[in-house]
């Protein structure tokens, strides 16, 4: 057997495809299990990681197998000195004829076990994992989005902007922000020029700072890092701008090392992920044979799809004949002296890319247009034919500049575009069909396309658009417009127009379309300027010059005119021939058919809307629980009426792509229906009622392999539940009818699905589940196999983007709603390992939270959303202060439970809640609400399905309930000043709290809990202001001006005449309630000083905005 050598070399130009191919062949020759070769490439340390062989140092050669008896025996010695030297440097024996891979593996394992112990290798492996994810993401996402996501996650940044370089323009562009900046402008340009990392604690003080680009705004408490990224040849290809709060400076060594690591790897792999995106499908579609007008229309669409440009052009200049032709909608002769910007590309034979067309000296308003827009022109020279082609792109709504990526993509596509155009021109020259044959083919194709679209149930606008495009090709017009009759006003309105960026106007009574509507005749005008019936006012409005007109009426099935097709300006400048009219009449008859159907549908929808409006009034006052009961009663009646034994209403669950049973009647049906198989998804996609009277042999009914219910269906009717906007909410299913389903059954099912649609349309699915049954919502989010697991279910995990907010003070409570609130609680319980410590099942915690949410009122601020906000902030304080190391697990759980329930203490009298009365007056002596709440919670735990404490030990249970009651009692507003005084007195001569003292321990935990009540003060100013507005909206206490209370004789008292109630309450709350609590907490638990400092920033900002410091003495909190 011949020797087959595989050389594994480490270099920056490593080819992954060759690597995989090599090992595939190696497996074939060696008969080694594919699992054995599970390699990972690490070019930075020149090793390949392997499951069995820990690390193998490369390069070296593996010879082919010499005999099947000994598959690892080497048949050839090592080749080259570099391989032997590499192995020796690692302390490994060189491979010779007597060595084998097993021996090398053992030696490698010992060597690398020592290497992997170092923290640097651990960090390196973590960075490798991040890099792998980045490289994979570049396959499906734009490069700028991938880069921004990586640094957003790894640097915990507030914002990341990737500025990509456009070398030909000396400009950097942010595709996300859609703005450009020159190489010499702003901090971005400064970094590009310096070619080094720039870290600024006060970016607005830097001389190069530009507010428009660098965007610090009013947030001065922000630090910024900028650094360049290089391509594979060492040129700067972009600048990364990272911003985050000043409290998180860029001084963490691990983060800076990651930036350096990523910059190196970015350069190494640049050729891999920066390869121009190229769509073979588009090229194949363009290379198909078609008429030149068809090709140019398709070319315009594809360029708009790829580059978002306003228009695209192909230019051809023949050096032999000195002729220049432009292909846009048709071929046009252009004087080379008036070719504008494209002329630059022709003369220089070099690409032209500009941001502003009018800034170029070659700009020609006739050719380049009057609008300011970017232009990209790519030339292609054919020296053999002495011809040059140029593909040009112009402007676009969202195109501020054509990027380097756009240049590369267009450069790669240009040869194919030119080849397609050349082939079409050759075909026209040597095998040109008669114009009549071409028109006949276009008409026939239009009919076939329409029939296909009808069968596939395309949208109406798509069907009309395709018909109009075909008619435009037949008559070879510059523009085609369809006007439809609005029956309410009896006026024509524009429904479709092939001209881009054409304003939609309503034709006046004296326009040609209006005259066609009134008479039903065809108007064919050869010279619009000299025709007395032509109204030129439309040209003035649209800035369009009309020369020739062909207007054809559109008839419905009753021979009434319901629309007009108008074609303007035949491309060759000649009048429209009468032979075109017959072809247009054929296609407009199909157009009239779909328009007539649409008007009939609108009339039915209007009647349905009236019914909805009537039912909305009565249903708006009905609760969701009442609706479910009503559904169940109606389903029971339908079962009896239709002689079926079971029925159910299913709602669409987008999160898991399935249908979930909301309510059922009769014998049971499946709780969930898979949207990837069966008759139910077919009904949803078709939006029509589907029937199967022989379900056991119906191929549309597929048994879900995961369904173990054993339910057998003999017959089934499925009716989609559709909103007035055409969105599918779910389905109504009724099954096992004794006889075949009748038209009367279909009518009943349609009426019931309409009733359900009207009921649910005003209620979002989250709202239904909030006040419906817990089982319904649990089915939506937790798989049956996950319910009894002591872990977070897959659907209850927080997405990475939100996880950063939940772990920091960036958490905005108003942005977390519905199931996201449950996810936050699950996240906290998982962080503190409550699931495993106390054997809490996923369904038990879900049921507990569901019941707790029902208890909370639906108020503006004091609701379940605020309870989760308190828990999030308390868990954040626990993490940063590491007090979980000082507490036992039962105390930690007690603190979290108290956080979730503390807002329920004053629930009996929340409507009359007056914090100032509680603070300054002696509250009435009533039963301790904390004790009352604990009793309520204990009673609630009588339901074993929601009892999260059922698996706790007796001692843990006692500790937990005792701590909960003490925390809730100590956190009452009436104990506010006493708690602060006790904490301040204790910490007078101490640096840290004595956690071994139970009394001091309780004070510290109570302060942590109380800090959660004022969590919004420790967040950004924007979040703080938004949350306080919600508080003020719900609770607006007023301080009695006649009270002679020395605690209020402060700047609050003096400034009361200068500021309104809201600001007075805002500053008063901070000064009297929030700041003292946070300050006392920071004294007892030193790491919490950051919370106090953040709150102080907000407090000082309020005071600086509304107080005159010179005239009003400042009062300390």
Automatic annotation (TrEMBL):
GAF domain residues: 459-605, 626-770
Keywords of the record: Hydrolase, Metal-binding
GO terms for biological process, alphabetical: signal transduction
MF annotations from Gene Ontology: 3',5'-cyclic-nucleotide phosphodiesterase activity; metal ion binding
UniProt xrefs under Pfam families: GAF, PDEase_I
Keyword DNA repair: no
Name the record gives this protein: 3'5'-cyclic nucleotide phosphodiesterase family protein
Organism: Tritrichomonas foetus
Lineage: Eukaryota, Metamonada, Parabasalia, Tritrichomonadida, Tritrichomonadidae
């Amino acid at each position: 057997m011949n020797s087959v050598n595989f050389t594994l070399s480490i270099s920056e130009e490593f080819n992954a495809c060759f690597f995989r191919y090599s090992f595939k062949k190696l497996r074939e020759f060696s008969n080694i299990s594919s699992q054995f070769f599970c390699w990972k490439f690490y070019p930075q340390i020149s090793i390949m990681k392997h499951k069995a062989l820990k690390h193998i140092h490369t390069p070296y050669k593996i010879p082919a197998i010499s005999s099947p008896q000994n598959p690892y025996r080497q048949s050839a010695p090592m080749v080259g000195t570099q391989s032997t030297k590499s192995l020796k440097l690692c302390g490994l024996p060189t491979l010779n004829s007597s060595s084998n891979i097993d021996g090398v593996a053992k030696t490698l394992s010992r060597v690398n076990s020592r290497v992997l112990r170092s923290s640097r290798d651990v960090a390196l492996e973590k960075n490798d994992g991040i890099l792998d994810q980045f490289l994979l993401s570049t396959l499906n996402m734009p490069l700028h989005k991938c880069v921004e996501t990586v640094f957003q996650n790894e640097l915990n940044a507030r914002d990341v902007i990737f500025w990509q370089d456009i070398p030909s323009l000396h400009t950097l562009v942010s595709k996300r922000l859609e703005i450009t900046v020159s190489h010499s402008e702003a901090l971005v340009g400064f970094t590009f020029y310096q070619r080094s990392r720039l870290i600024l604690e006060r970016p607005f003080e830097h001389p190069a700072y530009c507010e428009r680009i660098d965007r610090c705004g009013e947030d001065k408490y922000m630090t910024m890092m900028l650094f360049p990224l290089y391509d594979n040849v060492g040129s700067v290809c972009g600048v990364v701008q990272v911003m985050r709060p000043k409290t998180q400076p860029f001084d963490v060594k691990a983060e800076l090392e990651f930036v350096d690591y990523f910059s190196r790897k970015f350069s190494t792999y640049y050729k891999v992920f920066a390869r121009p995106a190229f769509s073979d499908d588009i090229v194949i579609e363009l290379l198909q044979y078609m008429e030149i007008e068809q090709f140019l229309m398709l070319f315009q669409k594809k360029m708009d799809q790829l580059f978002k440009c306003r228009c695209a052009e192909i230019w051809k200049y023949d050096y032999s004949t000195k002729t220049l032709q432009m292909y846009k909608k048709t071929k046009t002769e252009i004087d080379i002296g008036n070719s504008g910007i494209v002329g630059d590309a022709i003369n220089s034979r070099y690409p032209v890319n500009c941001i502003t067309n009018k800034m170029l000296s070659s700009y020609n308003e006739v050719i380049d247009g009057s609008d300011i827009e970017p232009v990209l022109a790519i030339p292609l020279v054919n020296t053999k034919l002495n011809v040059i082609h140029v593909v040009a792109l112009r402007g676009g709504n969202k195109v501020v500049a054509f990027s380097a990526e756009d240049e590369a993509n267009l450069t790669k596509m240009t040869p194919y575009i030119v080849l397609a155009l050349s082939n079409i021109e050759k075909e026209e020259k040597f095998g040109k069909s008669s114009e009549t044959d071409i028109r006949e083919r276009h008409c026939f194709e239009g009919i076939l396309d329409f029939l296909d679209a009808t069968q596939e149930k395309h949208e109406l606008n798509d069907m009309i658009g395709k018909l109009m495009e075909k008619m435009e090709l037949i008559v070879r017009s510059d523009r085609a417009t369809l006007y439809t009759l609005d029956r309410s006003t009896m006026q024509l309105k524009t429904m479709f127009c092939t001209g881009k960026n054409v304003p939609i106007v309503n034709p006046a009574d004296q326009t040609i379309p209006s005259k066609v509507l009134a008479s039903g005749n065809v108007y064919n005008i050869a010279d619009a300027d000299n025709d007395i019936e032509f109204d030129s006012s439309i040209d003035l409005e649209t800035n369009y010059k009309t020369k020739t007109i062909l207007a054809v009426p559109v008839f419905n099935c009753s021979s009434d005119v319901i629309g007009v097709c108008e074609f303007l300006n035949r491309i060759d400048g000649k009048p429209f021939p009468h032979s075109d009219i017959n072809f247009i009449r054929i296609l407009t008859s199909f157009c009239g058919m779909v328009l007539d159907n649409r008007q009939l549908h609108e009339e039915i929808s209007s009647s349905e809307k009236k019914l909805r409006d009537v039912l909305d009034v009565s249903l708006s006052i009905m609760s969701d629980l009442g609706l479910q009961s009503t559904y169940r009663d109606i389903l029971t009646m339908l079962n009896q009426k239709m002689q079926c034994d079971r029925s159910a209403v299913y709602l669409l669950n987008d999160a898991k792509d399935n249908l979930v049973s909301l309510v059922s009647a009769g014998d049971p049906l499946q709780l969930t229906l898979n949207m990837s198989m069966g008759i139910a998804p077919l009904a949803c996609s078709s939006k029509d009622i589907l029937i199967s009277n022989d379900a056991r042999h119906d191929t549309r009914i597929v048994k879900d392999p995961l369904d173990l219910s054993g339910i057998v269906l003999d017959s089934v009717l499925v009716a989609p539940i559709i909103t007035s906007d055409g969105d599918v909410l779910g389905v109504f299913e009724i099954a096992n009818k004794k006889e075949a389903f009748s038209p009367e059954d279909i009518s009943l099912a349609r009426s019931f699905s309409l009733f359900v649609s009207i009921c649910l349309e005003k209620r979002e699915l989250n709202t239904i589940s909030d006040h419906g049954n817990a089982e319904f919502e649990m089915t939506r989010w937790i798989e049956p196999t996950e319910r009894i697991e002591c872990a977070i279910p897959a659907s209850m995990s927080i997405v990475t983007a939100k996880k950063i907010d939940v772990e920091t003070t960036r958490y905005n409570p108003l942005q977390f709603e519905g199931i996201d609130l449950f996810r936050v609680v699950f996240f906290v319980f998982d962080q503190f390992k409550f699931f495993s410590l106390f054997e809490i099942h996923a369904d038990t915690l879900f049921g507990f939270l569901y019941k707790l949410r029902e208890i909370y009122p639906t108020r503006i601020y004091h609701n379940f959303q605020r309870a989760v906000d308190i828990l999030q902030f308390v868990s954040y304080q626990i993490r940063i202060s590491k007090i979980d190391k000082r507490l036992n697990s039962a105390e930690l759980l007690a603190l979290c439970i108290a956080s979730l329930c503390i807002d329920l203490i004053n629930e009996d009298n929340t409507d009359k809640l007056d914090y100032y009365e509680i603070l300054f007056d002696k509250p009435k002596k009533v039963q301790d609400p904390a004790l009352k709440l604990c009793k309520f919670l204990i009673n609630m735990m009588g339901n074993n399905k929601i009892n999260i404490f059922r698996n706790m030990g007796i001692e843990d249970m006692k500790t937990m309930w005792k701590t909960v009651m003490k925390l809730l009692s100590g956190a009452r507003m009436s104990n506010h000043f006493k708690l602060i005084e006790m904490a301040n007195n204790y910490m007078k001569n101490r640096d840290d709290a004595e956690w071994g003292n139970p009394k001091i321990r309780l004070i510290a935990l109570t302060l942590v809990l109380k800090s959660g009540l004022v969590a919004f003060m420790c967040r950004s100013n924007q979040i703080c202001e938004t949350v306080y507005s919600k508080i003020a909206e719900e609770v607006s206490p007023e301080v009695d001006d006649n009270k002679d209370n020395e605690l209020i004789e402060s700047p609050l008292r003096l400034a009361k005449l200068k500021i309104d109630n809201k600001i007075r309450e805002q500053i008063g709350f901070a000064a009297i309630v929030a700041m003292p609590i946070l300050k006392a907490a920071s004294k007892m638990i030193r790491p919490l000083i950051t919370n106090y400092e953040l709150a102080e920033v907000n407090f000082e900002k309020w005071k600086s905005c509304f107080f005159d410091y010179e005239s009003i003495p400042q009062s300390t909190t």
